[in-house]
Structures are given as C-alpha cells and as structure tokens.
Amino acid sequence: MDLGLRGRRALVCGASKGLGRACAAALAAEGVLVTIVARGEEELRLAAHDIGCSSGMPVGYVACDITTEHGRSAALASLPHPDILVTNAGGPPPGDFRDWSRDDWLAALDANMLAPIALIRSTLDGMINRRFGRVLNITSAAVKAPIGELGLSNGARSGLTGFVAGLARTAVRHNVTINNLLPGYFETDRLKALFDARARQADIAPEAGREDELAQAPARRFGQPTEFGAACAFLASAHAGYITGQNLLMDGGAYPGTF
Ligand code: NAD
After folding, report:
1. Residue 23 and residue 233 in contact, taking contact as beta carbons nearer than 8 Å
2. DSSP conformational letter for 49
3. pLDDT digits over 56-113, tens only?
4. What percent of the chain has pLDDT over 70?
5. CA–CA distance, 197 with 127 (Å, rounded to integer)
6. Which residue among 17, 39, 88 has the greatest number of ligand 1 atoms within 8 angstroms of its CB, and so is best to mutate?
7. How many angstroms separate the CA atoms of 199 and 125, rounded?
8. Predicted TM-score (pTM) of this structure
9. 139 has pLDDT over 90
10. How many whole angstroms from 174 Cα to the centroid of ligand 1?
C-alpha cells in the first residue's frame, strides 16, 4: 500500500535508537523527509546516516534535550513546519512512590506530559492551516494497565492521554489527527534496563526475569521495533485521517481485557 506520505516532513523525537528510531526509519522508507532528535550527538548522527542509507532519503538530526524549552526551540528551528510529529523521550525511572520528591514528579511530567503538549502547541496550527497533520505520541501500555514500579510513568502519561483525548476532537475536521501509541514490551535498551532494575530488586539474574516475562507473554515473544514503526507510519499516512484520539495498544495480547 502506498501510504501517500512522499515529500511530507516529520519531526521524530527520542529517535537515536529504540521505538523512536524505528518510527523514523519507517517514515523515511515511505519517502518522508525526517528530522530526528535525541540528546547524544554521536549515536544520533550514526542513526541519521543509517536511516538515510537504507531509505535513500536525506535525514536531518538535532542533538538536544526535548524536555527543555531550549531543546524544543532547537528542534523546531531545524524543522519549523512538520506535517508529522512523533513525540517521545526516555521513560521515568522505576521505584517506590515513597522515595519520589516533587522534583522527581516534575521531571516525569516535563518529559512525558508537558514536552509533548508544548511540541503540539508549536506545530498544530501550522498543520491545521495546511490541512494535513499527524501527531503520534509514544506513551506506554502502562496508561491502560499500570505497572507497579513505574508510578511516575503511569501518572505523567495518563495526564497526556487525558489532554490529547480532548484536543484530538477539535483538530480532526482539518485533517489533523492526534493518536497515542502504547508499547507493551518491545526489544529495546529501555526494556533491558527495566528487566535489569527488576532483577536487582528481586536479587535474581536479569535473564531469569526476562524468561519469566516471556513465559507469561501470550505471543511468547516481545515486540520488534520495526513492528512499532510500521504502525506509526500507517497512522501517519494519508489513509488514517478518520482515526483520531485513539490509544493503540501494541502488546502481543498481554492486556487481558475484552476491549
Ligand atoms: P530507548 O531507551 O531504547 O530509546 C529512547 C530514545 O529517546 C533514545 O534515542 C534517547 O536518546 C532518546 N531520549 C531520551 N530522553 C530524551 C530527551 N530528554 N530528549 C531527547 N531524546 C531523548 O527507549 P524505547 O524503548 O525506544 O522507549 C521509548 C519510549 O517508550 C520511552 O518513553 C519508554 O519509556 C516507552 N516505553 C517503552 C517500552 C518498551 O518495551 N521498549 C514499553 C513501554 C513504554
């Protein structure tokens, strides 16, 4: 299927590796002019080079912290009028809510709620004026089924989800959609870090924790970032203008509910 994206411009945040990178690669493969953002310049530059080589498209990059005002200004200076915006940043650390200070909460809110809202605020009206826009927020399956030790994530991302639910209904008449992508377990460095933290907590080998999770997973595997990127590209496509305000859970069937 031709996704009808050739020549569109996309800003993809948190994209030197993992799910953000997979979204950037899937969009570039569809002929989108992609600019990727992450904090570490070297890894980001290599990612831009690799995606450019495999897609044949020029890929821009901006090394900055997207959770800061300064970082967002730098990213938007490089690509001021994106047609597609993928918001993403690192997830907050696991832990016990008794240990979290106000500053810990503010950092989680900045990264996983306020930064996406600020980026949407800077780009949505341009999309509306051009009568095409796709915003995809990478959130988490934890929005639907909270994960005990990820309370900072559960809380901050739920705030973003609630906000987006309202806004999405106001933009869709202009062919501008806003949807959230909810990853369950995907094979990335973030997942490895989560299993390592759990293993330290339970005093077991990280591999044992991983095997445990795999045995319980209905798919008996974790997701591949390329699968995530493909879903992102479809929701960004010309064909997805009637899908908005949705939370697409990609977890291999792990969520046990009927809906
Ligand atoms: P990852 O650690 O593999 O990659 C994160 C990317 O974001 C990297 O490119 C990193 O450099 C970049 N990044 C982090 N903080 C940033 C910042 N402040 N500014 C700019 N770039 C930043 O993580 P991932 O597995 O791809 O996860 C992406 C998001 O999805 C995270 O928020 C994570 O919590 C969430 N998530 C992941 C999973 C999973 O199984 N992988 C599950 C649920 C939720």
Report:
1. yes
2. H
3. 999 999 999 999 999 999 999 999 999 999 999 999 998 999 999 999 999 999 999 9
4. 100
5. 40
6. 88
7. 46
8. 0.97
9. yes
10. 30
